[in-house]
């Protein structure tokens, strides 16, 4: 188990940025919360056992989901309250918490994420499928993930089998009305063009 991870202490500025999902808001910090390319998605407080920050956010009764990446936190609300009334409270909380050096994680997610992705790419797959899986992972990492992060979410590789790539959509993407369109018209087309063996892309994590 790694030491508790905290963000660098110092003056913190935060701004809110809308995402394609009207129920999700991205709070961008001038402070690093996770190393680049690493992210965590908590659909409920029970899943956030390794993140004191996420647990604190779930104490707000309108917070339904928390996603944390390199320098931002995406909050998905579970009530009809408007963001206009919620943003100031959440921004103030995040600023105070990070400036005070509050713990972000009790276990570094980077090693866990790398191990999970490696296991997904290999497992009991054939050598050819492992090679295809690695090509897909590289494309998702280099071309898709940066764009998805801009929208306050993330995409992770789950599996490849018989031409079908399964991915997991996290953060704002999990409930985004346009997620299915993006998946099929954008991500699927890219992978099919770059990796001819891919015939379809399906997603876990879409809640709409």
TrEMBL record:
* Top-level taxon of the source organism: Bacteria
InterPro entries, alphabetically?
FSCA_dom_sf, Nfu/NifU_N, Nfu/NifU_N_sf, NFU1-like, NIF_FeS_clus_asmbl_NifU_C
- Segment forming the signal sequence: none
Q: Where is the Scaffold protein Nfu/NifU N-terminal domain?
A: 14-101
- What SUPFAM superfamilies does the record tag this protein with? Fe-S cluster assembly (FSCA) domain-like, Hypothetical protein SAV1430
Similarity comment: family membership: Belongs to the NifU family.
Q: What is this protein's name?
A: NifU family protein
Natural source organism: Hymenobacter algoricola
């Amino acid at each position: 188990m790694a030491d508790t991870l905290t963000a660098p202490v110092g003056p913190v500025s935060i701004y809110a940025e809308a995402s394609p999902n009207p129920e999700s808001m991205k709070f961008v910090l001038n402070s690093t919360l996770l190393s680049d390319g690493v992210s965590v998605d908590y659909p409920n407080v029970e899943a956030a056992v390794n993140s004191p920050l996420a647990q604190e956010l779930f104490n707000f009764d309108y917070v339904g989901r928390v996603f944390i990446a390199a320098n931002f936190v995406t909050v998905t609300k579970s009530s009809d309250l408007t963001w206009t009334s919620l943003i100031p409270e959440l921004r103030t909380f995040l600023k105070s918490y990070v400036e005070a050096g509050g713990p972000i994680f009790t276990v570094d997610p980077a090693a866990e994420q790398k191990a999970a992705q490696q296991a997904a790419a290999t497992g009991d797959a054939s050598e050819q499928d492992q090679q295809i899986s690695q090509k897909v992972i590289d494309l998702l990492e280099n071309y898709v993930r940066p764009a998805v992060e801009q929208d306050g979410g993330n995409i992770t590789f789950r599996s490849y089998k018989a031409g079908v790539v399964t991915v997991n959509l996290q953060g704002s993407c999990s409930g985004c009305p346009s997620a299915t369109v993006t998946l099929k018209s954008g991500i699927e087309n890219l992978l099919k063009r770059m990796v001819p063996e891919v015939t379809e892309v399906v997603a876990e994590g879409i809640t709409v």
